[in-house]
Design a protein that fits this description.
Blueprint: E1 2-7, H1 11-20, E2 25-30, E3 51-52, E4 60-61, H2 68-71, H3 74-87, E5 91-94, E6 97-100, H4 105-118, E7 122-124, E8 129-135, E9 138-143, E10 146-150, E11 152-155, H5 170-177, E12 182-188, E13 192-194, H6 199-202, E14 205-215, E15 218-229, E16 233-235, H7 237-251, E17 256-261, H8 270-280, H9 286-289, H10 296-306, H11 319-330, E18 332-339, E19 347-352, E20 369-371, E21 379-380, H12 385-402
Length: about 400
């Protein structure tokens, strides 16, 4: 019988253990936590957005994106849906976002753990792996109570994100020990910190907008959605999806800036729209003039940045003031000074280089050593993509270990 060790009982580790375990494969799942899937419980605000119907590769990112099509395939996507169907999960689908119909992340976690136990996976909870060594072709798991030998080893330790759930980056240490290149690891899906004395004045505001990110004044990417304005900068899903570029750019000493369009619904020239609105609301002071469009705290910040009195009327403004207001409404500038740290990030960019593993995620350097989930240099957008990659990579490695792949 083949003995397999999986370090990390998170999303990818659980799925890998379930897929690999069979009469001829004994799986031991190591985790320093006292139960499996701790990070799963926090996903989707406790509801677990576990999949997305839009599986375009544009939602997945890596420093070696040309290798992603070799890993993320249509057949593998279908296998994920089949897997959860067989597990008994009934999906609640909203705009392509998959949640368990129970609306509880614990449903996914519990079903995964029970299925693993049903397949005789051995859980080694409250067990901190101190080291991994190779001896005579065997992987030796070293922990406080001794050493255990295995034929295959899967690193499913996660990234450095959310360290309170047990993610410390230990998997990177193992990978480096076995001579795998590590793409620098940075916080991703994380809040952005910005410069500006006005930030405290708009804290707590939420609104729909289009956010564009620039590196050294060159446009990189944009996202539309709800933004959260805070006393340190900006947050929200649209910001999270841009944060990987900010994080990487800042680490390289680049200037990172944002331009926020607070009126993304407009399909006409902003100055023409304001002029037309000014004719309609000719006796409205500027705070009322914008009241039906934007939150009052945001209006105060924008008017202050333009040097326009809240009691002025639009028709009394100079052409220069009107142009400045137009610019602030559809291209509000923000200089990004940093990101929140790993404790605030949902995932990380960077990790074990894809070029160091095969398309079935087996090491090209050390045979029978595998990597799954966040420890790899793959990160996804908000919306179920990071869990999606965890499921796919876990199934892929599990099938290879089981012998279902050549």
């Amino acid at each position: 019988m083949k003995n397999v060790a999986i370090i990390g009982a998170g999303a990818s580790g659980l799925v890998c253990s379930i897929t690999a375990a069979c009469r001829d494969v004994r799986v031991v799942l190591f985790d320093k936590n006292s139960f499996a899937g701790k990070k799963l419980l926090a996903t989707g605000n406790g509801r677990c957005n576990y999949w997305n119907s839009d599986q375009s590769l544009s939602h997945y990112h890596s420093s070696e994106e040309d290798l992603l099509p070799n890993i993320i395939t249509k057949s593998l996507e279908n296998e994920v849906l089949d897997f959860f169907d067989l597990l008994g999960v009934v999906p609640l689908i909203k705009n392509g976002y998959y949640y368990p119909y129970s609306n509880q992340a614990s449903s996914i976690r519990d079903l995964l753990e029970k299925e693993a136990l049903r397949r005789d996976v051995v859980f080694a909870f409250d067990t901190e792996v101190l080291d991994v060594v190779l001896e005579e072709g065997k992987f030796v798991i070293v922990e406080r109570d001794g050493r255990e030998y295995f034929d295959d080893l899967v690193i499913a330790t996660g990234s450095k994100a959310s360290p309170k759930t047990g993610s410390t980056g230990f998997g990177y240490q193992i990978a480096e020990k076995f001579h795998h290149p590590i793409v620098p690891v940075r916080p991703s899906l994380v809040q952005l910190q910005c410069h500006g004395s006005f930030l405290k004045n708009w804290a707590g505001v939420r609104c729909q907008c289009l956010v564009s990110l620039f590196q050294d004044d060159v446009f990189l990417s944009s996202q539309e959605g709800e933004i959260q304005l805070t006393d340190y900068g900006v947050s929200g899903i649209c910001v999270f999806n841009l944060s990987r570029y900010a994080s990487i750019g800042l680490s390289q000493g680049k200037k990172i800036s944002l331009k926020v369009n607070f009126l993304p619904f407009l399909d006409m020239n902003i100055l023409d729209w304001l002029t037309s609105r000014g004719e309609q609301l000719s006796d409205y002071s500027m705070d009322l003039f914008l009241e039906g469009v934007l939150p009052s705290k945001l209006i105060s910040v924008i008017l202050s940045c333009c040097g326009i009195s809240s009691k002025a009327v639009f028709t009394s403004l100079s052409l220069e003031e009107k142009k400045k207001l137009s610019l602030m409404l559809v291209s509000f500038p923000l200089e990004v000074s940093g990101t929140k740290d790993f404790s605030s990030s949902q995932v990380c960019s960077g990790g074990v280089a894809l070029s160091s593993v095969s398309s079935d995620l087996e090491s090209k350097i050390v045979p029978r050593l595998y990597f799954t989930g966040e420890v790899l240099d793959v990160d996804g957008d908000c919306g179920g993509y990071n869990l999606g990659f965890s499921w796919m990579s876990g199934i892929l490695v599990g099938k290879k270990i089981r012998g279902d792949l050549s």
